[in-house]
Amino acid sequence: MPISRTELEGSIRSAIPITHLEIIDQSNGCGENYAVFVVSAAFEGKNTLARHRFINDLLKDQIARMHAFSQ
Question: I want to staple 68 with a disulfide (CB 3.0 to 4.6 A). Which of 33, 38, 43, 54 is the partner?
Answer without folding.
Answer: 33
